[in-house]
UniProtKB/TrEMBL annotation:
Organism for this UniProt entry: Arcobacter venerupis
Origin superkingdom: Bacteria
Name of the gene encoding the protein in the UniProt record: nadD
Protein family membership: Belongs to the NadD family.
Cytidyltransferase-like domain location: 5-158
EC code: 2.7.7.18
One Pfam family in the UniProt entry: CTP_transf_like
UniProt name for this protein: Probable nicotinate-nucleotide adenylyltransferase
Pathway: Cofactor biosynthesis; NAD(+) biosynthesis; deamido-NAD(+) from nicotinate D-ribonucleotide: step 1/1
Length: 183
């Protein structure tokens, strides 16, 4: 069994995340893609949408993707999420012969500061999704996914643009807005 793990805050999920998953399924020869929303990224101090909401939105978006699973391991911990723990958990669960870990190009600048990064690099092969505005020379040391859409969750939290919200959850985002979420 060959798996890819795609961890993220997904606060909220946007179309570039979906393209990352589609490109990975197209190019990586994997049996399963495991999308793992964080409870809280170690380098971030808070989240905007609560973990359960982010999890439910991911479930909806990837409902019809056969090979995609949304994993609730990190959000159930209710504490800062370290990828080394998640990888060890999924390794024990599936006993995979190959583990890719997908990150966006912006994450390359801090990758060396991740918890137990040397051990993590032995367990997984990192794959880098190209990201406009975050180009890094280090990207050529990795397998790449061609994404290049200039959108971030930060910009959507500042000002919602439904063009960048996956169609399956546009209504949910509008409902959240009505309930007082400021996007
Ligand atoms: N536009 C994009 N192109 C390529 N990779 C992306 C893009 N947006 C997010 N990613 C990657 O997807 C993963 C999850 O991203 P995340 O949920 O943090 O979204 P984000 O848009 O970077 O959010 P924020 O603006 O809040 O930091 C990360 O590895 C990130 O680098
Ligand atoms: O394990 C770490 O030390 C670590 C440090 C920073 C980020 N990560 C992971 O990187 C992934 C992308 O995070 P984000 O917030 O950019 O979407 C997500 O799975 C985080 O848990 C992991």
């Amino acid at each position: 069994m060959r798996i890819a793990i795609f961890g993220g805050s997904f606060d909220p999920i946007h179309v570039a995340h979906v393209i990352v998953v589609e490109e990975a399924l197209k190019t990586l020869n994997i049996d399963m893609m495991i999308v793992v929303p964080t409870y809280l990224n170690p380098f971030k101090s808070s989240f905007y949408l609560d973990p359960e909401t982010r999890f439910k939105l991911l479930k909806k978006v990837f409902k019809n993707f056969d090979k995609v699973q949304i994993c609730d391991y990190e959000i159930n911990q209710q504490k800062t999420s370290y990828s080394i723990d998640t990888v060890n958990y999924l390794k024990n669960l599936y006993n995979p012969s190959k583990i890719y870990f997908i990150i966006g190009e912006d994450n390359l600048k801090s990758l060396d500061k991740w918890q137990e990064i040397d051990k993590l690099k032995e367990l997984v092969e990192f794959v880098v999704a190209s990201r406009k505005g975050f180009e890094s020379k280090k990207a050529k040391e990795f397998k790449n996914l061609d994404v290049n859409i200039n959108i971030s969750s930060t910009s959507l939290r500042d000002k919602i643009d439904l063009n960048y919200i996956p169609k399956e959850i546009k209504d949910d985002i509008l409902n959240l807005q009505e309930k007082g979420k400021s996007f």
